[in-house]
Amino acid sequence: MIKIKLKKLKKLIINNNLDGYIVPKNDAYFSEFSFPDRLKTISNFSGSAGFAIILKEKNYLFVDGRYTIQAEKECGKYFKIIEIPKSWPKDVLKKYKRKLYLGYDPQLLTNVNLNRLFYGLCNLYPLKNNLIDLVKKQKKRKFTNSFYSLGHKITGETIKSKMSRLIKHIKSKNIDNIFISAPENVAWLLNLRGKDNPFSPIPNCKIILTKQKKIYFFSCPKKINKIRKIKPYKNFEFLTYQSFSKIIETLPGKNFCIDGSTCSVANEAFIKLKFNIKSYNDPCYLMKSIKNSTEIKNMENSHIEDGLALTKFIYWIKNKINNKVTEIEAQNKLEKFRKFNKNYLFPSFNTIAGSGANGAIVHYRATKKNNKIIKKNELFLCDSGGQYKYGTTDVTRTLCFKEQPNKIKNIYTKVLKGHIAVATSNLSKLNTGKAIDIRARKYLKKDGLDYAHGTGHGVGFFSNVHEGPQSISKYNTVKLKEGMILSNEPGYYKKNHFGIRIENLVYIKKNKTLSFENLTMAPIEKNLINYKLLNKKEKDYLLRYHLSIYSKYSKFLNKNEKKWLVSLI
Asked: What is the C-alpha to C-alpha distance for residues 440 and 413, in angstroms, rounded to an integer?
C-alpha cells in the first residue's frame, strides 16, 4: 500500500513541476495528536513527532532518537531514516547540484519551521491542495462532544483574571491584537475543555484577542452550543475558520502578535496584509506552566488514585506472569484497574507495554501484528498515564519476574541513581532543565552509556501530557519556577534486547529552597537494584518513597498485596 501511495504522490509532484513535497506530522492545530495523520498515511510511521521530504527519486523521514528503531520497523523499506539533531535537511539537500523545488501545505507549516529547516537550501512553494489528500481521501473529523467549562473552583483562577494578566502583557509590548493559535493555550485561558483528541481534553479552537478585550473564537459551530450561553462566554464572537481573513480586515490597530511556532504560513499571510507582525512565544505557555495551588492539589489527588491502580497492576502481573500474559492483555488489565476509579476518564497517551526487545523501542505500541507474550526472563517496560477529573498522569516502571544478570542490574541501578539525582536537585542552584539533565546522565556516562531522549517534559493540568516551555533536556534553558510540573524519566535502551526507564511526575515546591516534590506514587522495582551501587542518601530516598506509598495505599489493599508492598520497604 505504501509503495502505491508513494507512486501516486510522485506523479502529483511531477505534475506540479516540483522536485519534492514536505509532509509534517502535525495537523492544522499543531497538536501531537494529528487528525488526519498525513505522515502516517504516506509512510506508515505512527510516532508522535517527525516529518518527511519525499523527492522524485528518494524518500527521507526525519525523527528524533525516540523513534529511530520504530521508524526503521514501520517504514525503513521505503524511507531513509534520518535521526535529528544528528542530521538535518541541509545534510540531504546539499547533495544536489541545484536548489530543489519543494511543495508544502501552508496550513500545516509555519514560517519559523520552514526558515529553520529549509532557508537557503531550496525553493519553497505553498500549494492550494494538500497532495496527501489527493493520494488518499482523508477521513473527516466526526463531531463528538461540545466544549465545556471547568469553572474557576477547579482551575483555581477565573477567566477574567487570566485575561487581565494577558491583556496587561500585550499592552506592555505595544500589541493591539494577539492570535492564540495553540488550542492548549486557548483551553487554559478560557478554562475550556473538549473531546477532540483521543488522549487529551483539549478542544480544537483558536482565538483572536484585542487589547479592548474583544474575543473572536474560531471553531466548529456545533461544539459551542453548551458554552455560548454561559456568562463568561456570552460576549465572545463565535466564528468558523472560513471567517478568519474577513475578521482580520475589520480589526483596529497596527501591531499584531503571533506565535511563529503555531501560526501557519497561511494565517500569517492574511495577518501580514494589514498589520505589522510581532512574533513572540505565546505568553500563555509560561503562564499555564506555573500551576496554582488548586491545580497542584487536584494533580496530587489524581496521582494518588492513579498510583493505587498501578500498584495493584504491578502485584497482579508479577503473580500472573506464568499464565502467558501478552502485552495487550497487560495494558488492558492496567486500564481496567484505572477504570475502577470513578474520576478516571481515558488514557493520556497510548500505553507502552513492551517485553524484552520491544521495551527498547522508546515509544513502542503493541498491536495485533507485533503483540508478544511477556516472557519471565525478560524485562517488561510499562509507560502509561491517565486523564482524571481533574489531572493528568504519566508514569513508567520497568519490571522483572526472575533474577537478572548483574550487568542488567547495574545499568538499571545507574538509571535509578540518575532518577534520584534529579528528584533531589537543589533548584535554587540548578534552575534550568539543561543543568539537571547532566545529573540524570552522569552515572550512565561513566560506563559510556546514554539515552536518546530528554530526561523530562512539562505536563499540563488536565491537559496535554506534553507541555512546554519547561523540560529537562540537553538544550532547554527555560528557568524552572515554583508550580511547574515535569517528568523525571532517565532510561537506557539496548536495541533488540531490553529497555529500562523509571518515570515519576514531579512539581516544583518552595520551602527554604526550590525543590522537586513527587506526584507519582507507585512502587519501584526492587529486584533490579544493585544496592552496593547506592549510597546512604539514595537508600534513604527509596525507603521514604516506599513508606509514603504504603501509608497512602495499605488500607485499600488486600492481605497479599499489603504483604508484598511491605517487602519493598
From this structure: 12
CATH at 269: 3.40.350.10
The verdict on 307 and 240 lying in the same domain is no
Same domain, 129 and 233: no
Task: Indicate the DSSP class of residue 400.
Answer: -
Q: How confident is the model at residue 144 (pLDDT cuts 50, 70, 90)?
A: low
Q: What is the pLDDT of residues 150-166, one digit of tens each?
A: 989 999 999 999 999 99
Q: Do 114 and 190 share a domain, yes or no?
A: no
Phi-psi region of 213 (alpha: psi -120 to 50; beta: other; left: phi over 0): left
Q: Where are the beta strands (DSSP E) in 176-265?
A: 177-180, 192-193, 206-210, 215-218, 237-239, 255-258
Q: Flag whether 287 is in a domain.
A: no
Neighbour count for residue 40 (Cβ, 10 Å):
18
H or E segment and range at residue 102: strand 100-104
Match 502535525 to its residue by C-alpha cell: 26
> What are residue 247's phi and psi, to 5 degrees?
-65, -40
Question: Pick the residue with more confidence: 533 or 232?
Answer: 533
At residue 535 the predicted structure's pLDDT band, cuts being 50, 70 and 90, is: very high
Please choose, from the candidates 150, 143, 140, 146, the residue with its C-alpha nearest in 3D space to the C-alpha of residue 223.
146
Q: How confident is the model at residue 143 (pLDDT cuts 50, 70, 90)?
A: low
Q: What are phi and psi of 209, to 5 degrees?
A: -120, 125
Check if the beta carbon of residue 25 is closer than 8 Å to that of residue 46.
Answer: no
Q: Are residues 561 and 433 in the same domain?
A: yes
Q: Which residue from 99, 103, 101, 102 is spatially nearest to 127, judged by alpha carbons?
A: 103
Is residue 142 included in any domain, yes or no?
A: no
Domain count, the chain: 3
Helix ranges (DSSP H) in 31-145 = 38-43, 68-75, 89-93, 111-118, 131-135
Q: Which domain holds residue 200?
A: 148-282
- Grid cell at residue 430: 540548578
* DSSP-based three-state secondary structure for 398: strand
Distance CA(398)–CA(349), nearest Å, equals 18
Query: How many other β-carbons are positioned within 10 Å of the β-carbon of residue 535?
Result: 10
Domain of 440, CATH number, reads 3.90.230.10
Q: Is the pLDDT of residue 33 over 90?
A: no
The answer as to whether 141 is a domain residue is no
Grid cell, residue 451, equals 539515552
Last residue of a domain, one of 282, 307, 330: 282
Q: What is the mean pLDDT of the chain?
A: 94
Residue 140 placed within a domain = no
